[in-house]
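[Discussion] Sanity-checking designs against the backbone

I'm trying to build intuition for which residues belong where. Below is a structure token string of 157 positions. I'd appreciate it if someone posts a full sequence so I can compare it with mine line by line.
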């Protein structure tokens, strides 16, 4: 990757972070625990899952220890807005810090993620896709509660 490509990658992750903050901030406190059906994650649980995954993807991409292993969606202490925001937004900060800390040539190096081997830049793309998948799922949580979801901010700079 070039320095310009790294800069764009950082901007995309910062945009994703801001969009996630908008979504969490826009859901009323009494709806953070909302589940459309009992078998799916709550609104807060969706974002805690994203945070867990962000830490997991980033630890593999940057070759560092994942200090946030576990299922955060099962931790009641993370369900309230302040703790939810701190944990989830911290996961985006962890990714951005990792991207900024790598030499641009390192993004083409292969890393192992569970049973797959792929270049770092591809693993980070898959992490961004995972984030979008779960954040997109929560749009229906808003609609089911009669609330218009925030814009996805696709072209926000």
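Best answer:
Here's mine. Compare freely.
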């Amino acid at each position: 990757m070039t320095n310009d490509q790294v800069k764009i990658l950082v901007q995309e992750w910062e945009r994703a972070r801001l969009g996630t903050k908008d979504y969490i901030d826009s859901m009323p406190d009494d709806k953070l625990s909302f589940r459309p059906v009992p078998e799916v994650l709550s609104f807060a649980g969706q974002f805690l899952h994203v945070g867990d995954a962000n830490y997991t993807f980033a630890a593999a991409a940057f070759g560092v220890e994942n200090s946030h292993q576990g299922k955060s969606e099962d931790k009641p202490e993370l369900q309230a807005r302040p703790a939810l925001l701190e944990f989830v937004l911290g996961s985006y900060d962890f990714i951005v810090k990792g991207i900024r800390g790598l030499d641009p040539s390192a993004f083409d190096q292969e890393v192992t993620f569970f049973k797959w081997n792929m270049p770092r830049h591809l693993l980070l793309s898959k992490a961004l896709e995972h984030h979008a998948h779960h954040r997109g799922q929560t749009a229906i949580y808003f609609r089911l509660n009669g609330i218009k979801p925030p814009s996805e901010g696709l072209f926000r700079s």
